[in-house]
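TA notes, week 10

Several of you asked for a full example with nothing omitted. So below is the full record: structure tokens for the whole chain, then the designed sequence directly under it. When grading your own attempts, check the secondary structure regions first.
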């Protein structure tokens, strides 16, 4: 089992990043790949969780140990797999998640991709009161950069990869047309809109 990886960030896609360490390029699934945009070709430290399946060995990566802890708590719930947990962690500020769990707000929890009523209830049952010592903010501030709407396209692709529906994203994309943000900022803003 891996705790973290240190190496050079060599590639960003809508679904994952690639970190080169010891001459090997590791594919790491992350909640918001574009939050690493300002670190391309730089040395990074990514906290890891490894999932081993019959057909694949998968790595999931996080900016901080705290973000990883939120992910680990989520996958401990019956019915929540790693990709679903990643989609939940992708919400920039997880205070809403914690409040919903502690207040048994099933409706809010059901807004996450692939979370039905039964799984939402299980989240409340298993996790209420468990986040007390876990700071949950992503804590990744980035500078606004000049960009084109390619960034909007990249953001929508990343949200689709997290499990959000194309119909939901079509409205959000229309809302942002004509704006000028980084892909990471589009993802953060879109997630906040999706959770309202």
């Amino acid at each position: 089992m891996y705790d973290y990886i240190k190496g050079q960030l060599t590639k960003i896609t809508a679904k994952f990043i690639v970190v080169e360490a010891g001459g090997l390029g590791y594919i790491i699934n992350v909640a918001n790949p574009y939050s690493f945009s300002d670190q391309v070709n730089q040395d990074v430290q990514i906290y890891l969780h490894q999932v081993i399946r019959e057909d694949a060995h998968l790595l999931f990566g996080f900016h901080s140990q705290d973000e990883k802890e939120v992910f680990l708590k989520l996958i401990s719930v019956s019915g929540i797999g790693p990709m679903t947990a990643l989609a939940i962690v992708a919400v920039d500020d997880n205070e809403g998640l914690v409040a919903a769990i502690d207040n048994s707000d099933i409706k809010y929890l059901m807004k996450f991709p692939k979370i039905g009523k039964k799984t939402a209830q299980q989240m409340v049952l298993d996790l209420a009161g468990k986040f007390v010592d876990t700071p949950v903010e992503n804590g990744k501030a980035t500078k606004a950069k000049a960009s084109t709407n390619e960034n909007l396209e990249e953001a929508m692709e990343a949200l689709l990869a997290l499990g959000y529906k194309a119909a939901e994203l079509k409205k959000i994309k229309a809302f942002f047309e004509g704006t000028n943000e980084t892909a990471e900022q589009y993802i953060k803003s879109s997630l906040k809109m999706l959770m309202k």
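The chain has three domains: 4-62, 66-127, 150-194. Use that as a sanity check on your answer.
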